[in-house]
Amino acid sequence: MTSDPHAWLISLEGVPSGFAGARDGIDVVLRDRGLRRTSPELTAESLLRGAHASAVLEGSGSTLAEVRAGAGDEIAADAVRLATELLSLVPVLRRQPLQALARIHTVAARGSLPDELLGRPRDGESASRLRGIAELITAPTEAPALAVAAVVHAELMTAAPFGSHNGIVARATERLVAAARGVDEKSLVVPEAAHLALRPEYESNLRGWATGTQAGMHSWLLYAVEAWSAAAEASPLVRDAE
Predict the structure, then answer these.
(1) Which of 43, 100, 150, 182 could potentially form a cystine with 92 if both were Cys, beta carbons 3.0 to 4.6 Å apart?
(2) ∠ CA(189), CA(18), CA(44), 5° rounding?
């Protein structure tokens, strides 16, 4: 029997219950506010908002209005280009996560790196880290799907396996894992906007995860509970109803 690589986090204080609460909040938004309102346009709006927020976290100076008008800077354009293709990678992520990660980087970094470096890890150590992350994505587990997404996000940020755009790749993958594991199949919540709204905590807790200590990793997971709750509130299902 294959061991569960996420089993360790189930016993951490506040983690299972916290993610259960965050999942309940997402389900309420998708069920109560999404019922009869869900459309491809709302998914596109969620993806656009997420692309803008992720680009800002990566250094973009573009506003959401500029991005919406197609007038964003290069980083924003990269994030939007990835957002338009992201959900088509759900079946690839489920079956061949390494291929999905390579494609995510290829789309995001096109034009920024030589073609031969697109989708390729920086070195042998990065390739090994990517293989480990791919196993985390598809491993059978009793851990909450949102926790798995948060772990994959933090691991990609810490490993920085590609030559560029690692933050955009990590945040896009977090969203994709949530879709692939059935939490938010139409990708209507906006985790990237939550991370931007909570930016000091986001960046601080990522540094904590990178230490590799249980305390640092525990703190990141508790942060992720808060972020996923905020992601539900950032959904166009909520904001457009206000």
Answers:
(1) 100
(2) 5
Counting every residue written for the chain, the total comes to 242
Its sign, for the CA torsion 173, 5, 144, 56, is: negative
User: CA of 2: how far to CAs of 6, 122, 140, 141, 144, in Å?
Assistant: 12, 29, 8, 10, 18
Tokens read off for 233: 């509130």
Q: 193-235 pLDDT, tens per residue? A: 999 999 999 999 999 999 999 999 999 999 999 999 999 999 9
What values do phi and psi take at 149, rounded to 5?
-60, -40
**What contacts 18, CB < 8 A, 6 or more positions away?**
221, 222, 225
Element (H, E) at 207: helix 199-210
Torsion angle in degrees (nearest 10) through CA of 44, 83, 46, 234 = -170
Residues 35-81 have pLDDT tens digits of 666 789 999 999 999 999 999 999 999 999 999 999 999 999 999 99
Q: What is the dihedral of CA 190, 86, 223, 13, to 10 degrees?
A: 120
- Structural contact between residues 92 and 100, judged by C-beta atoms closer than 8 angstroms: yes
Residue 43 sits at the vertex; the CA angle it makes with 225 and 168, to the nearest 5 degrees, is: 60
Q: Taking the CA of residue 235 as centre, how many other CA atoms within 13 Å lie in the half-sphere pointing to its CB?
A: 29
